[in-house]
Structure formats: C-alpha cells, structure tokens
Amino acid sequence: MKSSTVMVILVLQAVLVMGIFAAVAKENAVGENKGNRETNGGKLKCCSNCNFSFSGLYTCDDVVKKCDPVCKSCAVVKTHPVKMFKCTDTFLGMCGPPCKH
C-alpha cells in the first residue's frame, strides 16, 4: 500500500515539474525572438537547420538569399559578398522538409 502511494506522489511531482519546465521554455523561446514576439502559425516550405525547444516551438537557422513568404520577420545576417537573410520567427509544430540546395 505504501509503495503505491509513494509511486503516485512521485508521478504527480514529475508531471508538475515537466509542466513548469514547459512553461518556462515556451516563455524563453518566444521571449528570445527579438524581431517577432508572436508565434508564427505558418509552416516553412523547407528548413535544413531546424532548432527545436522543449515547448514544441522551433526556429529555422537557415541562412538564405530570400526568406520564405511565410516568414514575418526576416533579418539580414550577412551583407558581403552577397546579402543573406534568416527568418527570426518562432514556429509551432514540425519543421518543413530539408531544403534542396
């Protein structure tokens, strides 16, 4: 009887801690994005360098000649010899397929 009670308490504590970590990770993922503080509900056509966070949000760190039309906040990351961009949006869900170069 005691071991099952202890097990239930440990499971409830684990669920509580995971919920707290998820909330903190979501706040940090959205808060780090200086260009766009909202989550972009769209989906990129492709992304080869996808970074997931614990909360299920992701960013695409691909450096491209032109941002995807879905991207709301496109930042210049390189100017010489060719101007290159990176989408600074935070997306919810899965990354698109890898880009074909």
Structural overview:
The chain is rod-shaped and about 70 Å long. Strands 1-6-3-2 form a 4-stranded mixed β-sheet, with helices on one face. It has a two-stranded antiparallel sheet with strand order 4-5. The chain contains 1 helix and 6 strands, in the order H-E-E-E-E-E-E. With 101 residues, the protein is an alpha+beta fold. The protein has one helix at 2-32, and strands at 39-40, 50-52, 57-60, 74-78, 84-87, 90-92. It has one domain.
Q: What secondary-structure arrangement, pairings included, does this model have?
A:
Blueprint: H1 2-32, E1 39-40, E2 50-52, E3 57-60, E4 74-78, E5 84-87, E6 90-92
Parallel strand pairs: 1-6
Antiparallel strand pairs: 2-3, 3-6, 4-5
State the end-to-end distance. Answer: 61 Å
Helical content class: 25-40%
- Work out the oligomeric state of the chains in this entry: single chain
Counted up, domains total 1
Number of strands: 6
Shape: rod-shaped
The radius of gyration over CA amounts to 19 Å
Number of helices: 1
N-to-C order of helices and strands: HEEEEEE
Note the beta-strand portion: 15-25%
- Secondary-structure-based class equals alpha+beta
Low-pLDDT residue spans: 29-36
Organism: Oryza punctata (Red rice)
Domain Bowman-Birk serine protease inhibitors family: 60-74
Signal peptide: 1-22
GO molecular function, one term: serine-type endopeptidase inhibitor activity
